[in-house]
Give the backbone structure.
Amino acid sequence: MSVIQVKGISKVFGDTKAVDDVSFDVSAGKIYGILGPNGAGKTTTIRMINHIMIPDSGEIFILGQKAGPKTQPLIGYMPEERGLYKKMKVGEHLMYLARLKGMKEPEAKKSLNYWLERFEASDWKKKEVGELSKGMQQKIQFIATVAHDPDIYIFDEPFSGLDPINSELLKEVILELKARGKTILFSTHRMEQVEQMCDDICLYNHGRKVLDGNLNTIKRSFGRNTVIVEFEGDGSFFDQFEGIRFNNRSNRFVEMILGDYMTPQALLAQAIDHLEIIKYELVYPSLHEIFIQTVKESSNKRVNA
Amino acid sequence: MSYDKLFLIFKREYLTRIRTKSFIISTILAPVAIILLIAIPIILQVSDSEKTQVIGIKDEVGTVLPRLIELNSERYVPTPPVTMDSLRSLVLSGNLDGFIEITEEHLATNKDVELLYTGSGGMGLISEIRSDIRMVLQNERLDRAEVGAVVQEILAMRPQLLTRKLTAEGEETQDTLALFMIGYIMCFIIYGAMFGYGAIIMRSVIEEKTNRIIEVITSSVKPFELLMGKVLGVGALGLTQFIIWSISASALLAIAAPVTALIIGDDAASVDAGGATTQAASEMPFEIPTIGPELWITFILFFLLGYLIYSALFASVGSAVDSESDSQQLMMPIMVPIILPMLFLGKVAQDPDSTFSVVTSLIPFFAPMLMPVRVAMTDVPAWEYALSVLLMVGTFIGLIWLSSRIYRVGILMYGKKASFKEMAKWVRYN
C-alpha cells in the first residue's frame, strides 16, 4: 500500500519551475530516497508533502488522505535547515512542538522521557536550548521529529551538518524506525548513504523526476557494465584506450566503464601482460554512475526537445 | 483554523516574554523615562541659570538705573565714568558681560535701546533684559507724565482666564493645559509602543527565520495560525503592560492630590486639621487632573487597535528579510504613518474639534496617537469614536489578510532581500 502518493505535482516560483509534473509512490515500511543535485527540487517536493507549501497543480495523498492540516501530524519532519528557540528550556520546547503535533500532555511527556533517556539527554530538560552544544541541539532536533510517534518520517538532507557521532546515531534511529514498520523518506545528494540504506529511490534533475523504482532493480537494469581492477604496476596503462571512463581511480585501483570500443575480456587479456592483476571484477554500476548517466541522458533529451 | 494550536502559540509567545527581564524593566522604566522627558525641560526652564550675567548701565538720565537695580540688583550695575571705548574693552576683558547706554532720547522718543555684550547668555538673557528695559522705561515715562496712580494700576492689571467646563452634572474647573499634557503623554506612550511592540513582532519573525525553526513549526501549523498566535500573544503582553500602567497611574493620581496638598500645606502658615488641605490645594500652582474611566479605556483600546494594525505590517516586513539590518528600507512606509501624527499633534491640541482634527483622528493609521488626545481635551461625538474604532478594525482585518499572504511566502525565502514588487507578487501566490 502506498503511504505517500505524489501525483503530477508542479510548483512554480516566478519564472523557475521548481518541481515539474512529478509523480511517485512510497510504500509502507520502506526507506525511500530522493536524490538529486542541489536545486533539483527535492526540498520543494518535501515541503509540499508536509503541506508547508501547496502545489500549483497535482495532488498528494498521505495514507490515502489528501495532504493538509489533518495529515501533518502523521509525519515527523526534520528539515534541512534546522533550528530551535534558543531561549526556551529543552523540556518546554519539546513539549511545545509535541503539542503542536496534536499530542496530549501526558502522552507527550511519556514519549519525550523515553527519547530523552534513549539519547542520554534527560539531564538537559531544565537547560536553555542556547546553552547546549551544536551536537546536543541536533539530538534535541531528532527527538522533536520523532516524539509524536508518527508512521511516516521525512528527513531533508539529514546528514548534512551532523557530526560523525550523531550521523551514526541518526542512521541507527532510521534503521530502528524501519524495523518497527515505519515508513521513511529522505533526500540527499550523497549517493553512498542511499546505497547503504534505501530500498527505493527517485532521481531528480531540474525539477523533474528522471528515474524511480527499487534500487536493486534499477542497478540490475544497467547490467554489470562496470569493471573494477586491483593491480600492482604502472596504472597509466589504462590511459591508452579510447572510450574508457573512470569513476574512481588510485595508483592501485580503478573503477571504470569501458564503453563501446572494448570488451572486458579483451582488456583483461592485455592487462595481464602489463600489470600484476590482483582482482578483476565485473559489477553493477554505482548509484553515482547511474545518476550521471541518467542525468546526462535526460539533459540531452531536454536540449533536443 | 485550529484554535487549540492558536492557543498553544499564543501561550508560548505570551509566557516566554512576560518572564523576561526586559518586559519587567520596560514596564517600570518607560513611565519614568516619559515623566523625565517631560519634567526635565520644565525644571531646567524654571530653575535660574546658575551664573548671573552682569550688565553695566551707563545711565545718562539718572533715574533709570535705580529702577533696574530694584528689579535685579545682581544683574544691573552702574558703569564707571569712562568712555564707550573703555566700556567695550571692559566687556572684552570679561569684567562686564555687556552694557547699555540709556540717554534722555530713549525716554523722549521711541528710540531703540542697544545692548553691547559678549554674545553669551542666549535667548533667555535677551528677552529678560528687553522686558526689564521696557517696563522701566514705561514706568519712568508714566511718572514724568504724572498720570497718577489710577492709570498706573490700570496698566499693571493682568487678569488670567479661568475656565469651567459646563456639563449635565454641573460645573467643573478644567485645566486645558493639564488635559493636553495627559493627552500628550498618552499619545507619546502609544507612539513609543507602536515602535516597541512592532519591533518585538518583527524581531520574533526574523528570529524564527534565522533560527530555521519556522519550517518545523509550519510542518505542524498554518502560517496564519502562527502569525495570529504571535500577534495576539504579544498583544496580550502589551495589554498587560498598559493595564499595569493605567492602574498604577490612576492610583498615583488619586493619592497625588492629598499628598501634594499635605506637603504644600505643611509649608503654609495655617495648618488646621480640616481646612489645610482644601486651602493648600487652591494655592497649588496647577491642578492635579482627574482622568475619567472613558479616557483610560480609550488609551488602552486605541493602543490595542493601533498595535494590531502596525504589528501586521511589521510582521510582513520581518518575513521578507533575513536580518534586522536588512529591514530599514522596508520599514520606511511603516514609520512614516507612525511619525506623522506627532507633527499633527500641535494643531490637534490647538483645536481638537476642527475638521482637521476630526479627519486625522479618523484615519486608522493616525487614530491610535491622535484620538486619545482629542478624548482627553474635548467631548468627541460618539459617532466619530465609533467610526474610528470601526475603521481601525476593518483596516486590521484587511492588513492581517495581506500580511499573512506575504508572511506565508516570506518565511520560507532565504538569502535575498525582497523588494516591494516581490512582496506584491507573493500576495498573489497560491
Observations:
- Confidence is low (pLDDT under 50) at residues 268-284 of chain B.
- Chain B touches chain A at residues 2, 5, 8-9, 12, 16, 207, 210-213, 215-222, 412, 414, 425, 430 (CB under 8 Å).
- Strands of chain B lie at 55-59, 76-78, 98-102, 115-117, 164-167, 170-173.
